[in-house]
Automatic annotation (TrEMBL):
Entries under InterPro entries matching the protein: NA-bd_OB-fold, Rep_factor-A_C
Residue ranges of every copy of the Replication factor A C-terminal domain listed in the record: 160-285
Record's protein name: Replication factor A C-terminal domain-containing protein
One Pfam family linked to the record: Rep_fac-A_C
Amino acid sequence: MKSGIEIYKLPKEVIPTSKGDKHIKEIVLVDEKLKPIALTLWGDFADTEGSEIVNLLNVNEYPLISIENIGVTPFKGISLCTKPHSTVTINPISSRAQQLQKWAVENRPTLDALKICREYNNAAINLAIPVVDEISKISEVPPSIDPTKPVWIHGKINLQLEGDSLWYMACSNCLKTVYADSDTRFFCMHCGTEDAIATPRSRANVSITDTTSTIEASVFGQCVEKLLLMTSKQIMEVELQGKKASFQYANKRLDKEEYIVQLRSQSSTYQTNPGPSYTITSLHDASHYIVTTNIDPSTPPSSKMKLPHSGVEDYLSPLPTTSITPTIFLELLF
């Protein structure tokens, strides 16, 4: 069972399938860990519970939802979806519900800020924060990772620059490969978005090394941009100018840095090599964290931090105490 606070409804309401168009509602959930998760309500759930949720969101309420017997997919991090036999309850009555509702009331400014900043669009990258017990040695990473339990590791990253291009043209909604010129609008045959935009998206293969072993993984989008310190469009332009070799500078810099990395098993759709294959879904500069093995729970939380974001007047409440404390919290959000 999954419980969470709904903060926003995503715009898509129809998905084309082999059996015709299906009505959906996509809702963004968060809990005390501030890790947004997308929930897709299908069919009757979209029409009934989904409509009730939207009505509550429209009057600036943040309703609580509880879902049993749900589907889990690793797309864009962790996503949830209803199944024919799912049970969806809005504002349930239970001790867990009371705990979440109390937290939502106390952290209303935080929820408002997340909603305004739309940070959940990159939730898997920016808001995923491991506790120290979740960080594994590379030698302990299993050949196949449970999609509901991604693995965190800590090590040095090296970009593998030989071979494939470091970018591809993607649908702005589903991120799948499309054949269109950059910034043009089109109907996406993959996801059914009528006004999708052809958007350059970066991709790369990397090796990650700690004191126990080395592992290879694929990395996409904003994570590649963090490593190269360039936007995907800039990466595309450099390659089109025949200057891909200039990216070697990045490995010299990365050799002096360490990252905390979240791994998932790569989808068979994208897997081209035999044996274990992984995708990086989140990475953070390890120097921005203080890793500790014990934290006094009586330690008072830090003062509230103001979001340096145009038009946002709210204050962001501190994250729950964990064994990894972000020393530069805004790095996680922006």
